[in-house]
Amino acid sequence: MLFLLEESERSKDDLVLVLGTEDLVNNILNGQEKINTEQARRLGEFFNVESSLFIE
Questions:
Q1: What confidence tens digit (pLDDT) does each residue in 1-56 have?
Q2: What is the pLDDT of residue 35?
Q3: Is residue 11 helix, strand or coil?
Q4: Among 21, 8, 6, residue whose Cα is nearest residue 48
Q5: 28 Cβ partners below 8 Å, 6+ apart?
Q6: Per-residue CA distances from 53 to 1, 49 (Å)
Q7: Running DSSP on this structure, what letter comes out for residue 52?
């Protein structure tokens, strides 16, 4: 996801707007929390990519 952030010239703050809280974004970026289906859908719309890219 960090690659997509850099390539889209967006910031972690933008992800907070999409996902809800800074703690959640930090936990996901640090690998402490997995992305659920709804979060993957939101991220897919945000980055304009398939949501399946965010689900392990």
A1: 889 999 999 999 999 999 999 999 999 999 999 999 999 999 999 999 999 999 98
A2: 97
A3: coil
A4: 8
A5: 1, 19, 34, 35, 39
A6: 9, 8
A7: G
